[in-house]
Amino acid sequence: MSVLLETSLGDIVIDLEVEACPKTCENFLKLCKVYYYNLHAFFNVSKDFLAQAGDPSATGTGGESIWSLIASRQGTKAPRYFTPEFVPRLKHKEKGTVSMAVAPGLEDGTKGGCGSQFFVTLGDNIDYLDGKHAVFGHVVEGLDTLDKLNDVFVDQEGRPFKDVRIRHVEILEDPFPDPEGLVVPDSIPTRPPDNSTRIAEDEDPLATLPEEEAEALRRKKAAQASALTLEMVGDLPFANVRPPENVLFVCKLNPVTRDEDLELIFSRFGTIMSCQVIRDKRTGDSLQYAFIEFDKREEAEQGYFKMQNVLVDDRRIWVDFSQSVSRLNDGKWSNDAKMGPRKSRGGFAGRDDLEETRRYRAGSGGGRGSYDMVFDVPGDKPRKRKSRSRSPRREKERERESDRRRSPARNYHRDRDSRRSRSRDRYDRDRDSRQRR
Protein backbone atom coordinates (compact mmCIF):
# COMPACT_ATOMS: atom_id res chain seq x y z
CA MET A 1 0.00 0.00 0.00
CA SER A 2 1.78 3.12 -1.23
CA VAL A 3 1.32 6.88 -1.66
CA LEU A 4 3.07 9.19 -4.14
CA LEU A 5 3.91 12.68 -2.94
CA GLU A 6 4.66 15.11 -5.79
CA THR A 7 6.74 17.86 -4.19
CA SER A 8 8.39 20.96 -5.63
CA LEU A 9 11.78 19.20 -5.30
CA GLY A 10 10.74 15.85 -6.78
CA ASP A 11 8.58 12.80 -6.19
CA ILE A 12 8.54 10.68 -3.02
CA VAL A 13 6.92 7.21 -2.82
CA ILE A 14 5.96 6.06 0.69
CA ASP A 15 5.23 2.41 1.49
CA LEU A 16 2.75 2.19 4.40
CA GLU A 17 2.66 -0.38 7.25
CA VAL A 18 -1.07 -1.02 6.98
CA GLU A 19 -1.02 -4.28 8.94
CA ALA A 20 1.06 -3.04 11.86
CA CYS A 21 -0.54 0.46 12.06
CA PRO A 22 -4.02 0.20 10.52
CA LYS A 23 -5.57 3.24 12.23
CA THR A 24 -2.62 5.52 11.47
CA CYS A 25 -2.47 4.39 7.84
CA GLU A 26 -6.23 4.81 7.40
CA ASN A 27 -6.05 8.36 8.77
CA PHE A 28 -3.17 9.23 6.42
CA LEU A 29 -4.78 7.67 3.33
CA LYS A 30 -8.17 9.30 3.86
CA LEU A 31 -6.56 12.71 4.41
CA CYS A 32 -4.73 12.19 1.12
CA LYS A 33 -8.01 11.24 -0.56
CA VAL A 34 -9.74 14.51 0.35
CA TYR A 35 -6.69 16.50 -0.91
CA TYR A 36 -5.89 17.62 2.63
CA TYR A 37 -2.13 17.60 2.06
CA ASN A 38 -2.22 19.35 -1.32
CA LEU A 39 -0.09 22.52 -1.35
CA HIS A 40 1.05 21.97 2.24
CA ALA A 41 4.53 23.27 3.03
CA PHE A 42 7.41 21.55 4.75
CA PHE A 43 7.52 24.08 7.57
CA ASN A 44 10.24 22.48 9.70
CA VAL A 45 13.42 21.15 8.11
CA SER A 46 16.45 20.23 10.21
CA LYS A 47 19.59 19.11 8.40
CA ASP A 48 20.36 15.41 8.85
CA PHE A 49 17.38 15.15 11.18
CA LEU A 50 13.83 15.47 9.76
CA ALA A 51 11.46 17.36 7.47
CA GLN A 52 7.96 18.00 8.87
CA ALA A 53 4.69 18.77 7.01
CA GLY A 54 0.95 18.24 7.33
CA ASP A 55 -0.03 21.47 9.13
CA PRO A 56 -2.32 23.72 7.06
CA SER A 57 -1.21 26.77 9.04
CA ALA A 58 2.50 25.88 8.64
CA THR A 59 3.11 26.86 12.26
CA GLY A 60 3.36 23.43 13.92
CA THR A 61 0.18 23.94 15.95
CA GLY A 62 -2.53 23.05 13.41
CA GLY A 63 -3.89 19.90 11.87
CA GLU A 64 -6.48 17.30 12.85
CA SER A 65 -7.40 13.70 12.17
CA ILE A 66 -9.75 12.64 9.39
CA TRP A 67 -12.52 11.82 11.89
CA SER A 68 -12.30 15.27 13.45
CA LEU A 69 -12.34 16.82 9.97
CA ILE A 70 -15.50 14.91 9.01
CA ALA A 71 -17.22 15.87 12.28
CA SER A 72 -16.36 19.57 11.85
CA ARG A 73 -17.81 19.59 8.32
CA GLN A 74 -21.00 17.95 9.62
CA GLY A 75 -21.31 20.40 12.50
CA THR A 76 -20.64 17.83 15.23
CA LYS A 77 -17.75 17.34 17.63
CA ALA A 78 -15.11 14.64 17.67
CA PRO A 79 -11.64 14.35 19.28
CA ARG A 80 -9.02 16.25 17.36
CA TYR A 81 -6.38 13.54 17.80
CA PHE A 82 -6.39 9.77 17.94
CA THR A 83 -4.23 7.46 20.05
CA PRO A 84 -0.82 6.82 18.44
CA GLU A 85 0.12 3.27 17.50
CA PHE A 86 3.62 2.41 18.72
CA VAL A 87 5.05 -0.79 17.27
CA PRO A 88 8.31 -1.91 18.92
CA ARG A 89 9.84 -3.29 15.72
CA LEU A 90 9.27 -0.05 13.79
CA LYS A 91 12.13 2.30 14.69
CA HIS A 92 13.82 5.36 13.27
CA LYS A 93 16.86 3.48 12.00
CA GLU A 94 17.05 4.40 8.34
CA LYS A 95 16.85 7.58 6.38
CA GLY A 96 13.37 8.03 4.93
CA THR A 97 11.39 6.74 7.89
CA VAL A 98 7.90 8.29 7.96
CA SER A 99 6.25 8.94 11.34
CA MET A 100 3.20 10.73 12.67
CA ALA A 101 4.06 13.65 14.97
CA VAL A 102 2.54 13.11 18.42
CA ALA A 103 1.10 16.27 19.96
CA PRO A 104 1.41 16.64 23.76
CA GLY A 105 -1.65 17.11 25.97
CA LEU A 106 -2.82 20.66 26.72
CA GLU A 107 -3.60 22.32 30.05
CA ASP A 108 -7.30 22.67 29.15
CA GLY A 109 -7.67 18.89 29.29
CA THR A 110 -7.26 18.19 25.58
CA LYS A 111 -5.53 14.87 25.17
CA GLY A 112 -2.53 14.63 22.93
CA GLY A 113 -2.10 12.21 20.08
CA CYS A 114 -1.78 12.04 16.31
CA GLY A 115 -3.56 14.39 13.93
CA SER A 116 -2.36 15.19 10.42
CA GLN A 117 1.26 16.26 10.93
CA PHE A 118 3.95 13.83 9.83
CA PHE A 119 7.69 13.94 9.21
CA VAL A 120 10.33 12.13 7.19
CA THR A 121 13.76 11.45 8.70
CA LEU A 122 16.79 12.82 6.82
CA GLY A 123 19.41 10.76 8.65
CA ASP A 124 20.11 7.30 10.00
CA ASN A 125 19.87 5.95 13.55
CA ILE A 126 17.74 8.66 15.14
CA ASP A 127 16.85 6.32 17.95
CA TYR A 128 15.85 8.96 20.50
CA LEU A 129 12.59 9.41 18.51
CA ASP A 130 11.60 5.79 19.17
CA GLY A 131 8.60 5.54 21.47
CA LYS A 132 7.86 9.28 21.11
CA HIS A 133 6.53 9.36 17.55
CA ALA A 134 4.61 6.63 15.71
CA VAL A 135 6.35 5.12 12.65
CA PHE A 136 3.92 4.04 9.92
CA GLY A 137 5.88 3.99 6.63
CA HIS A 138 9.17 4.22 4.75
CA VAL A 139 10.33 6.05 1.64
CA VAL A 140 11.02 3.48 -1.08
CA GLU A 141 11.58 5.91 -3.99
CA GLY A 142 12.79 9.50 -4.01
CA LEU A 143 15.83 9.42 -1.74
CA ASP A 144 17.47 11.97 -4.04
CA THR A 145 14.51 14.28 -3.30
CA LEU A 146 15.23 13.87 0.41
CA ASP A 147 18.84 14.89 -0.27
CA LYS A 148 17.62 18.08 -1.94
CA LEU A 149 15.27 18.70 0.96
CA ASN A 150 18.14 18.21 3.39
CA ASP A 151 20.20 20.93 1.65
CA VAL A 152 17.62 23.74 1.58
CA PHE A 153 18.38 27.03 3.34
CA VAL A 154 16.29 27.64 6.44
CA ASP A 155 15.84 30.40 9.02
CA GLN A 156 16.36 30.19 12.77
CA GLU A 157 13.02 28.41 13.22
CA GLY A 158 13.80 25.79 10.57
CA ARG A 159 11.38 27.19 7.95
CA PRO A 160 12.87 27.12 4.41
CA PHE A 161 13.40 30.56 2.91
CA LYS A 162 12.01 29.20 -0.35
CA ASP A 163 8.83 27.21 0.11
CA VAL A 164 8.98 23.45 -0.43
CA ARG A 165 5.43 22.23 -0.96
CA ILE A 166 3.50 19.05 -1.64
CA ARG A 167 1.98 19.86 -5.00
CA HIS A 168 -0.20 16.76 -5.25
CA VAL A 169 -0.80 13.41 -3.55
CA GLU A 170 -1.66 10.29 -5.51
CA ILE A 171 -2.91 7.16 -3.69
CA LEU A 172 -1.46 4.08 -5.39
CA GLU A 173 -3.47 1.58 -3.32
CA ASP A 174 -6.02 1.98 -0.52
CA PRO A 175 -7.31 -1.13 1.29
CA PHE A 176 -9.59 0.72 3.75
CA PRO A 177 -13.26 1.57 3.15
CA ASP A 178 -14.25 5.23 3.42
CA PRO A 179 -15.54 6.26 6.87
CA GLU A 180 -19.14 7.41 7.14
CA GLY A 181 -19.57 11.05 6.10
CA LEU A 182 -16.40 11.28 4.00
CA VAL A 183 -16.93 13.64 1.05
CA VAL A 184 -14.26 14.01 -1.63
CA PRO A 185 -14.08 17.59 -3.00
CA ASP A 186 -15.02 18.12 -6.64
CA SER A 187 -11.85 20.09 -7.41
CA ILE A 188 -8.25 20.06 -6.26
CA PRO A 189 -7.12 23.08 -4.18
CA THR A 190 -5.32 25.75 -6.17
CA ARG A 191 -4.18 28.05 -3.35
CA PRO A 192 -1.95 27.21 -0.35
CA PRO A 193 -3.82 27.04 2.97
CA ASP A 194 -1.23 29.22 4.77
CA ASN A 195 -0.40 32.90 4.20
CA SER A 196 3.26 32.47 3.34
CA THR A 197 5.54 35.45 2.68
CA ARG A 198 8.44 33.24 1.61
CA ILE A 199 9.85 32.86 -1.86
CA ALA A 200 7.28 30.90 -3.86
CA GLU A 201 8.11 27.29 -4.62
CA ASP A 202 7.94 27.97 -8.38
CA GLU A 203 9.93 31.23 -8.23
CA ASP A 204 13.63 31.56 -8.98
CA PRO A 205 15.13 34.34 -6.80
CA LEU A 206 18.27 34.49 -8.99
CA ALA A 207 16.44 34.69 -12.30
CA THR A 208 16.90 37.86 -14.35
CA LEU A 209 14.61 39.24 -17.01
CA PRO A 210 15.80 39.98 -20.53
CA GLU A 211 17.06 43.52 -21.01
CA GLU A 212 14.00 44.65 -22.96
CA GLU A 213 11.51 43.26 -20.41
CA ALA A 214 13.51 44.69 -17.51
CA GLU A 215 13.54 48.11 -19.18
CA ALA A 216 9.79 47.92 -19.83
CA LEU A 217 9.18 46.98 -16.19
CA ARG A 218 11.40 49.84 -15.01
CA ARG A 219 9.52 52.32 -17.21
CA LYS A 220 6.19 51.04 -15.92
CA LYS A 221 7.24 51.51 -12.30
CA ALA A 222 8.62 54.97 -13.08
CA ALA A 223 5.34 55.93 -14.74
CA GLN A 224 3.38 54.73 -11.71
CA ALA A 225 5.62 56.77 -9.41
CA SER A 226 5.22 59.85 -11.62
CA ALA A 227 1.45 59.42 -11.67
CA LEU A 228 1.39 59.20 -7.88
CA THR A 229 3.44 62.40 -7.67
CA LEU A 230 1.06 64.20 -10.04
CA GLU A 231 -1.85 63.06 -7.90
CA MET A 232 -0.19 64.47 -4.79
CA VAL A 233 0.38 67.88 -6.39
CA GLY A 234 -3.15 67.96 -7.81
CA ASP A 235 -2.43 67.63 -11.54
CA LEU A 236 -4.22 64.25 -11.70
CA PRO A 237 -7.49 63.40 -9.95
CA PHE A 238 -5.95 60.04 -8.95
CA ALA A 239 -2.96 58.00 -10.04
CA ASN A 240 -4.73 55.15 -11.86
CA VAL A 241 -6.73 57.43 -14.16
CA ARG A 242 -6.67 56.77 -17.90
CA PRO A 243 -7.49 59.18 -20.74
CA PRO A 244 -11.05 58.81 -22.06
CA GLU A 245 -11.31 56.66 -25.15
CA ASN A 246 -14.08 58.74 -26.77
CA VAL A 247 -12.12 62.01 -27.12
CA LEU A 248 -10.09 63.01 -30.18
CA PHE A 249 -7.18 65.45 -30.26
CA VAL A 250 -7.06 67.54 -33.43
CA CYS A 251 -4.08 69.78 -34.23
CA LYS A 252 -2.50 71.79 -37.11
CA LEU A 253 -5.72 73.76 -37.41
CA ASN A 254 -6.10 77.01 -39.28
CA PRO A 255 -6.36 79.93 -36.81
CA VAL A 256 -9.70 80.91 -38.38
CA THR A 257 -11.30 77.50 -37.73
CA ARG A 258 -14.07 77.79 -35.15
CA ASP A 259 -15.70 75.32 -32.76
CA GLU A 260 -18.84 75.25 -34.87
CA ASP A 261 -16.87 74.38 -37.99
CA LEU A 262 -15.20 71.34 -36.41
CA GLU A 263 -18.44 70.18 -34.81
CA LEU A 264 -20.21 70.34 -38.17
CA ILE A 265 -17.42 68.42 -39.92
CA PHE A 266 -17.07 65.66 -37.29
CA SER A 267 -20.80 65.33 -36.52
CA ARG A 268 -21.25 62.92 -39.44
CA PHE A 269 -19.47 60.21 -37.41
CA GLY A 270 -21.82 60.37 -34.43
CA THR A 271 -23.16 62.42 -31.57
CA ILE A 272 -20.68 65.04 -30.36
CA MET A 273 -20.85 65.80 -26.65
CA SER A 274 -18.46 68.76 -26.81
CA CYS A 275 -16.15 70.37 -29.36
CA GLN A 276 -13.69 73.02 -28.29
CA VAL A 277 -10.84 74.86 -29.97
CA ILE A 278 -8.29 75.78 -27.32
CA ARG A 279 -7.52 79.51 -27.27
CA ASP A 280 -4.97 81.72 -25.59
CA LYS A 281 -6.20 82.76 -22.17
CA ARG A 282 -5.10 86.38 -22.53
CA THR A 283 -5.56 87.23 -26.21
CA GLY A 284 -8.25 84.75 -27.21
CA ASP A 285 -6.33 83.66 -30.32
CA SER A 286 -6.62 80.05 -31.45
CA LEU A 287 -3.74 77.77 -30.40
CA GLN A 288 -4.55 75.63 -33.46
CA TYR A 289 -5.60 72.47 -31.62
CA ALA A 290 -8.90 71.20 -30.30
CA PHE A 291 -10.63 68.40 -28.37
CA ILE A 292 -13.72 66.63 -29.72
CA GLU A 293 -15.71 64.37 -27.39
CA PHE A 294 -18.02 61.77 -28.90
CA ASP A 295 -20.81 59.87 -27.20
CA LYS A 296 -19.30 56.46 -28.00
CA ARG A 297 -15.82 55.14 -28.51
CA GLU A 298 -16.71 53.58 -31.87
CA GLU A 299 -17.72 56.99 -33.21
CA ALA A 300 -14.36 58.43 -32.12
CA GLU A 301 -12.57 55.58 -33.90
CA GLN A 302 -14.42 56.36 -37.13
CA GLY A 303 -13.44 60.01 -36.87
CA TYR A 304 -9.83 59.02 -36.25
CA PHE A 305 -9.60 56.80 -39.33
CA LYS A 306 -11.59 59.03 -41.70
CA MET A 307 -10.27 62.52 -40.85
CA GLN A 308 -6.52 61.92 -40.79
CA ASN A 309 -4.74 64.47 -43.10
CA VAL A 310 -8.05 65.89 -44.29
CA LEU A 311 -7.98 69.46 -45.67
CA VAL A 312 -9.88 71.85 -43.37
CA ASP A 313 -9.70 75.60 -44.12
CA ASP A 314 -6.64 75.06 -46.36
CA ARG A 315 -4.82 73.14 -43.59
CA ARG A 316 -4.25 69.38 -43.43
CA ILE A 317 -5.22 68.47 -39.88
CA TRP A 318 -3.72 65.76 -37.70
CA VAL A 319 -6.08 63.57 -35.64
CA ASP A 320 -5.17 61.33 -32.71
CA PHE A 321 -6.78 60.00 -29.54
CA SER A 322 -6.52 62.39 -26.62
CA GLN A 323 -4.03 61.70 -23.84
CA SER A 324 -5.21 64.59 -21.67
CA VAL A 325 -7.01 64.04 -18.36
CA SER A 326 -7.38 67.70 -17.43
CA ARG A 327 -11.12 67.67 -18.03
CA LEU A 328 -11.53 64.76 -15.63
CA ASN A 329 -9.92 66.90 -12.95
CA ASP A 330 -11.65 70.29 -13.24
CA GLY A 331 -14.37 69.70 -15.84
CA LYS A 332 -12.87 71.69 -18.73
CA TRP A 333 -10.00 71.61 -21.19
CA SER A 334 -8.71 75.10 -20.34
CA ASN A 335 -9.25 77.73 -17.66
CA ASP A 336 -11.46 80.05 -19.68
CA ALA A 337 -13.32 77.43 -21.74
CA LYS A 338 -17.05 76.98 -21.77
CA MET A 339 -18.29 73.46 -21.44
CA GLY A 340 -20.41 72.13 -24.27
CA PRO A 341 -23.51 69.97 -23.84
CA ARG A 342 -22.67 66.77 -22.07
CA LYS A 343 -24.85 63.79 -21.42
CA SER A 344 -24.49 62.03 -18.06
CA ARG A 345 -23.02 58.55 -18.28
CA GLY A 346 -22.43 55.82 -15.76
CA GLY A 347 -19.08 55.73 -13.99
CA PHE A 348 -16.33 58.31 -14.02
CA ALA A 349 -14.71 59.13 -17.36
CA GLY A 350 -16.78 56.31 -18.84
CA ARG A 351 -15.27 53.78 -16.40
CA ASP A 352 -17.45 52.21 -13.72
CA ASP A 353 -14.44 50.96 -11.77
CA LEU A 354 -13.41 54.55 -10.96
CA GLU A 355 -16.81 55.73 -9.74
CA GLU A 356 -16.15 54.96 -6.08
CA THR A 357 -12.78 56.71 -6.24
CA ARG A 358 -14.42 59.76 -7.77
CA ARG A 359 -17.02 59.92 -5.00
CA TYR A 360 -14.37 59.67 -2.34
CA ARG A 361 -12.13 62.27 -3.96
CA ALA A 362 -14.88 64.70 -4.88
CA GLY A 363 -15.21 66.27 -1.45
CA SER A 364 -17.90 68.68 -0.38
CA GLY A 365 -16.39 71.91 -1.64
CA GLY A 366 -16.08 70.94 -5.29
CA GLY A 367 -13.51 72.20 -7.72
CA ARG A 368 -9.92 71.28 -8.28
CA GLY A 369 -8.02 70.06 -5.27
CA SER A 370 -10.95 70.43 -2.85
CA TYR A 371 -10.60 67.02 -1.21
CA ASP A 372 -12.15 66.30 2.15
CA MET A 373 -9.69 65.41 4.88
CA VAL A 374 -10.47 62.01 6.32
CA PHE A 375 -9.62 63.11 9.86
CA ASP A 376 -12.09 66.04 9.95
CA VAL A 377 -14.57 65.83 12.82
CA PRO A 378 -18.19 66.28 11.62
CA GLY A 379 -19.77 69.39 13.09
CA ASP A 380 -16.50 70.77 14.38
CA LYS A 381 -16.30 74.47 13.49
CA PRO A 382 -13.15 76.59 13.78
CA ARG A 383 -13.14 79.04 16.62
CA LYS A 384 -13.07 82.75 15.79
CA ARG A 385 -10.76 85.05 17.69
CA LYS A 386 -12.40 88.00 19.34
CA SER A 387 -11.22 91.33 18.03
CA ARG A 388 -9.98 93.75 20.66
CA SER A 389 -10.77 97.44 20.36
CA ARG A 390 -7.69 99.64 20.31
CA SER A 391 -7.44 103.35 20.98
CA PRO A 392 -6.21 105.68 18.19
CA ARG A 393 -3.14 106.55 20.23
CA ARG A 394 -2.20 102.91 20.63
CA GLU A 395 -2.76 102.30 16.93
CA LYS A 396 -0.37 105.13 16.00
CA GLU A 397 2.24 103.78 18.39
CA ARG A 398 1.92 100.32 16.84
CA GLU A 399 2.30 101.77 13.33
CA ARG A 400 5.43 103.72 14.29
CA GLU A 401 6.88 100.63 15.92
CA SER A 402 6.15 98.48 12.88
CA ASP A 403 7.69 101.09 10.56
CA ARG A 404 10.78 101.21 12.69
CA ARG A 405 11.12 97.42 12.54
CA ARG A 406 10.49 97.19 8.82
CA SER A 407 13.15 99.71 7.72
CA PRO A 408 15.90 100.46 10.24
CA ALA A 409 17.95 102.50 7.71
CA ARG A 410 15.01 104.66 6.72
CA ASN A 411 14.10 105.20 10.37
CA TYR A 412 17.66 106.19 11.15
CA HIS A 413 17.74 108.89 8.46
CA ARG A 414 14.31 110.09 9.43
CA ASP A 415 15.35 110.41 13.08
CA ARG A 416 18.56 112.16 12.04
CA ASP A 417 16.64 114.76 10.03
CA SER A 418 14.31 115.26 12.95
CA ARG A 419 17.21 115.87 15.30
CA ARG A 420 18.78 118.38 12.90
CA SER A 421 15.50 120.22 12.54
CA ARG A 422 15.09 120.49 16.30
CA SER A 423 18.67 121.71 16.70
CA ARG A 424 18.19 124.36 14.00
CA ASP A 425 15.00 125.62 15.67
CA ARG A 426 16.75 125.84 19.01
CA TYR A 427 19.65 127.79 17.42
CA ASP A 428 17.23 130.24 15.76
CA ARG A 429 15.42 130.87 19.05
CA ASP A 430 18.68 131.53 20.87
CA ARG A 431 19.87 133.92 18.17
CA ASP A 432 16.61 135.87 18.26
CA SER A 433 16.80 136.18 22.03
CA ARG A 434 20.37 137.52 21.86
CA GLN A 435 19.41 140.12 19.30
CA ARG A 436 16.52 141.34 21.41
CA ARG A 437 18.88 141.81 24.28
From TrEMBL:
Record InterPro entries: CRIP, Cyclophilin-like_dom_sf, Cyclophilin-type_PPIase_dom, Cyclophilin_PPIL4, Nucleotide-bd_a/b_plait_sf, RBD_domain_sf, RRM_dom
Keyword set, alphabetical order: Isomerase, Nucleus, RNA-binding, Rotamase
Compartmental location: Nucleus
GO CC annotations, alphabetized: nucleus
SUPFAM superfamilies named among the record's database cross-references: Cyclophilin-like, RNA-binding domain, RBD
Catalytic activity: [protein]-peptidylproline (omega=180) = [protein]-peptidylproline (omega=0)
Domain RRM: 246-324
Compositional bias ranges of the Basic residues kind: 382-391
Residue ranges occupied by any PPIase cyclophilin-type domain in the UniProt entry: 6-171
EC top class named in words: isomerase
Molecular function in Gene Ontology: peptidyl-prolyl cis-trans isomerase activity; RNA binding
Region (Disordered): 180-200, 330-437
Comp. bias regions, Basic and acidic residues: 350-359, 392-437
Major location category of this protein: nucleus
Coiled coil: none
UniProt EC number: 5.2.1.8
Family: Belongs to the cyclophilin-type PPIase family. PPIL4 subfamily.
PANTHER family, per the entry: PEPTIDYL-PROLYL CIS-TRANS ISOMERASE-LIKE 4
Function summary: PPIases accelerate the folding of proteins. It catalyzes the cis-trans isomerization of proline imidic peptide bonds in oligopeptides.
Protein name in the entry: Peptidyl-prolyl cis-trans isomerase
Taxonomic lineage of the native organism: Eukaryota, Fungi, Dikarya, Basidiomycota, Agaricomycotina
